[in-house]
Write a structure and sequence with these properties.
Number of helices: 11
Largest sheet: 6 strands, antiparallel
Radius of gyration: 21 Å
Strand content: 15-25%
């Protein structure tokens, strides 16, 4: 994968200028309105990770590429992007309006206890998009308008208010979910499954051919978690309806698709970094998961 897009690259690409205090401000925050002439460079950003967080309210017909998935949305969406997941979006209509804000982790961690990455929409496997109706669009738009007004003010504590507005956006999105979805780890099986999922996701994204996917089997994870493999398998199956091996294979196939789609690494390099001893083993695995060979998938 290419290296994450930095704040400096973002400002140069979109606006052809840099804020004066960007280098010193590790807790950087900024907010923008999207519309006619609001952004200097309308060309879609490249598919990559960023080294900052982003929250966007986007109206119109758009195609999002998030990790290895593509999602077509028509209407208004509230999107949450974190530094661990590569993404980009393409406008599929002439008029795209809305708002977005960007911030570094230090914007929160320097002032508040806890970590912004702990918010469910920024967590590994969290839901990044929320579809809004007209009333919800109006409410979220008002929050962004308050951000725009505040960041242009000379109020000495404006960044405290801006932190509150970002948190309000997050909680507004979470309240749109069914209440039972917000209760995490109701039992031991759920807790084991959550830790397994975190360990699995922690190995991604693969960013260099020299990086190696090492926890590849149910037994590997069981040893790492200090539980019997039968206990791990039973907990994951009861919680998700899928076997441990299925989860690992699906995530491995997902990363393989992303690497085939978005890097110029050869098949042997991809095979190696995903933990296969021979390219032929990777070919067999990928075809079983997708019905394509790796080479054929690249040209589909």
């Amino acid at each position: 994968m290419e290296k994450p897009e930095s704040l400096e690259e973002f400002y140069q690409y979109k606006f052809n200028w840099l804020p004066e205090n960007l280098q010193q401000d590790i807790g950087h925050f900024n907010v923008f309105s999207m519309g006619e002439n609001s952004i200097a460079n309308p060309v879609p950003a490249r598919y990559s990770r960023r080294d900052f967080y982003k929250i966007a309210l986007i109206r119109g017909k758009n195609l999002y590429h998030y990790a290895d998935k593509s999602l077509e949305l028509d209407g208004t969406a509230l999107m949450f992007f974190n530094p661990t997941v590569p993404y980009t979006w393409e406008a599929a209509c002439d008029t795209v309006t809305g708002y977005f804000c960007i911030f570094k982790e230090g914007f929160f961690s320097e002032k508040l206890r806890g970590n912004v990455a702990d918010l469910p929409m920024f967590a590994v496997g969290g839901k990044p998009s929320y579809i809004l109706n007209d009333a919800q669009d109006a409410h979220v738009s008002q929050i962004f308008e308050k951000m725009l007004e505040e960041i242009a003010s000379d109020y000495p504590f404006k960044y405290d208010l801006l932190r509150n507005y970002v948190t309000e956006l997050a909680h507004y999105a979470l309240k749109m979910e069914p209440s039972e979805a917000l209760y995490q780890h109701p039992n031991a099986n759920s807790r084991i499954t959550a830790v397994f999922t975190e360990l699995l996701e922690r190995q991604f994204p693969i960013e260099a051919p020299s990086q190696r996917f090492t926890l590849r089997s149910a037994n590997d994870f069981a040893q790492h978690l200090s539980v019997h493999v039968n206990h791990l398998n039973r907990a994951i199956r009861e919680t998700t309806g899928k076997t441990t091996t299925t989860h690992i294979a699906e995530r491995l196939a997902s990363e393989a698709k992303a690497l085939l789609r978005h890097t110029n690494w050869n098949i042997s390099e991809i095979s190696y970094c995903l933990g296969f001893e021979e390219p032929s083993h990777f070919n067999n695995f990928f075809k079983k998961q997708t019905n394509y060979t790796p080479s054929a998938f690249r040209i589909v």
